[in-house]
Fold these 3 entries.
Entry 1:
Amino acid sequence: MLEAIEKLLVLQDRDRRLIRLRIEVADIDPQRRLVQTRHTNAEAEFEKAKLTGQQLESERKRLELEVESKKEQIAKYAAQQWLTRKNEEYKALSHEIETCKAAISSLDDQQIVLMEKIEAAERQVVAAAEILRKAKADSAVQLQQMAEAEARLRKQLADAEDARAAASAAIIDPILLGRYERILKSKGDKVVVDVQRGVCGGCHMKLSRQNVIDCQGDRDIVQCPNCARILYYLPGMDVTPLE
C-alpha cells in the first residue's frame, strides 16, 4: 500500500472519531433541555393543581357566605312577620322565607358537589407534588451526569482534534490533502475506500478492469470515476468482478 494511502487512512480514522465525538457533544444540549422541560412541566402541573384547589376553595367560601346571607334574610323576614298586622304582608314575607330556604337547599347541594371536587383536587395536588418531587430528584441526577459526560467528551474531543491535526500534518502533499478535504466535505467520512469484487467501497459502482489493476499496482493515487473517492487495495482482497 502506498505510504500516502496509509496516512490518509489514519487521517480518515481520526476524522471518524472527531465526527462521532462532535455528534455526542452536540446531543447533550437537547437531552439537557428535555430533562429541564420535564421538570418545568411537572412544576406547571403542580401549580395548576394548586390553583384549581384554591379556586374550588374560594367557591366553597362564596357558597358558605351566600348561605349565611340567606339565613340572615330569613331572620330579618321572620322578625318583620312579628311586626306586621297585614295578612298580605305576612304572606309575602312567608313567601320570601320559603324562597330563601329553597335557595339554601340548592346551595347545600352545590356545596356537596363542590366538596367532592375539592377532595379530588386535593388528591391531584398530592399526586402532582409527588411527580414534581421525583422530577426534581431525577433531573438533578441526570443533569449532573450530563455535565460530567460533557466534560469528559470535550476533553476527548480536544485530544481527538490534536490527533487529527497531527495526522493531517503528516501528509506532505498539499494537493492530496486538499483533495481528501474536498471529498470529506461532500461525501462524509468514507473518503478512502477499499475495492472488493470489482466495485467501489463507497458508491458500490462497478469499476473498470484498469481501475482495479491500477489499485493493485500501488504506483499512484486512484480515484473512483463515479464518486471520486480514493481507492485502495490490500493483498487478499477479492477483486473478482461481480457477475
Entry 2:
Amino acid sequence: MAPMTNDIKTEQQAPKAFTNEQQGTDVELKHRRIRSFVLRQGRVTKGQERALEIGWPKFGVEYVAKPIDLNTLFHRQDSSKILEIGFGMGETTAKIAHTLPDCDFLAVEVHTPGVGALLKLIEEQSLTNIRIIQHDVVEVLQNMLADASLDGVHIFFPDPWHKKRHHKRRLIQAEFVKLLCTKLKVGGYLHVATDWQEYAEWVLNVLNAETQLTNTAENYAPKPSYRPLTKFESRGLKLGHGVWDMVFTRI
C-alpha cells in the first residue's frame, strides 16, 4: 500500500489535493480560502464504482455548511469520535475501525478512488463505525464540526513537500493546528505519523509551539498499537527507513 497522502483537499466535483499555505491570523483562517491545489485524478475501478453506488447512501455524508451532530450521525452517544484526515485508499482506516469498534471514525478525503476503496472495505468487513465526507477538510472543520466535539485526530503520512520552496504547502502549519485544537475536547489527542525525518522535525516544532497541546512523549512517541503497519511502511523499515509518530493531547 502506498503511503496515505492527506494534504487538505477540496471539492467533490473535481477531486484535488489541498495543502494549507495560509499564514494569517485566526480571523483570516475563518474567512479566507486557505488552500492550494495539485490536480489528482485517478481511475475508479468497477469495484470502487459499485461501492460508491451502494455504500455512499449508507456511509457517505454530504457536505453542508452547518454543524452536524456526531452522536446522531453514528447512532450512539458513548463512543469516542475520531477524525481521520486523508485516508488514501482506506486500508489503514478500515483496520483501525476494526481494531477499535467502540470508536467512531469520521474520515475525510477527496480522492474518489480512495473513497470508493474505503466503501468497498466497509462492505467487505461489515464495518459500521466509519462515515466518509468527500470535501475540503478545512471547510469541514470550520463549518460542520462543533468546537470540542472530537476525541482524537489522525493524520498519517501527509505529503512532506520536501523541497524548501514547497514547505508553505505542508499540511501541518501553526494556523491549521490551532483550528484542530478548537475541535478537540480537553484531553483529546492529535496523532501525526510521517516517514520523512525532516518533516517529522517540522511537525514536532509546530506542535510543541502550540500552547493548547502537550506532548505525550519527550519527543517522538512509540507507535500506538492501534496504528497498523502499512505494506509501504514495512518495506521502508526493512530498508532502514524511519517512521516517526507524534501524539499530543489537548490541555
Entry 3:
Amino acid sequence: MRCLFRPHSTAMSVLCILLLLLPACRTLVESDVPAPRHDPSDLWEVVLRQVVDADGYVDYDRLEARRETLDLYVAFLGTGRIPQSTLARYAYWMNAYNALVMFTVLEEGRPASVLDVPPAGLWVKTPGAGFFTQRAFRFGPDRLSLSEIENERLRMVRQDIRLHAAINCASVSCPPLRRELYDGRLLERQLEDQMIRWVNDPDRGVRVEGDTAVMTPIFDWFARDFHDWTAGDDLCTMAARYARSALRADLTRLAEQGCPHQFFEYDWSLNHRPRE
C-alpha cells in the first residue's frame, strides 16, 4: 500500500506509517500438514457432502472429526497450483474461499460468530476485520485474505451477481453453502441453481410482506453490483428473475410500484447445525 498524501503533521505521519505497516501485521494462517502431491479436491468434496446439510448449514462437529481432509485441501491451496482456464480458475477461487472460511472457523475454536474473531496487533478494529481481512492464506508466493479473494479474484474478474449466492461467510444469514465443489465445466448451471435457492429462501434471501419486499442486506451492501451488473435493474426485477411461482408474481407486481423494500437484520451467528 502506498501512502498517497503528503503528511503535514506528526499525526498524519504516524497514520501513513501505520498504513504502510498494515500488510506486515497480517496473520498468516496455514495448514500444519505437508502439502499433498496430488489434488485432494475429490476427497474434500466427499467431506462436504458429509458435513453440509440440504439447507446449506454446516455440522462443525462432524467437520472437526474429518478435518484432516480439510487440512490437506488447504495445504494444497498453499502450493499455488491454480487452473489456467478462466472458468476453472473462477471455480477454484470460490471453492478456496468457502473451504478457508470453514478452516478459519475451526482454527479460531468455532466462535459463536465470525465477528467475534479479533484482529491482531495494530489492525483496525472494524467488525469482521479479524476474520475476513487481517488473516491471510498462502497461495504459492501470494498471501491473500478472504476479502482479497472475494474482491480481487472473484468480484472484479467476472462481475456476476450470482457470485454472492455462491460464497458463504459461516453465518446463519449467509446464502446456503453448496454440498459440492464448483466446477468450471458445470459452473453456469451451479451458479444459476445457487441464485435460485438463495432468492427463494424466505429467511436468507427474499420474501414479500404485504406491499414490501424484505430482502437480504447483501443486496444493500453490494448495491452497486446488483444495479450495475444487471444494467440498472431494480432489486425487485433482479430478484424476480430467479424467483419461483408466487414470489415471482409478487416481486413483479412490486417492481411496477417502484420496488418498495427493506432489508432484514443479518444474523451473524455461526451457521452450525448438527446433521441427523
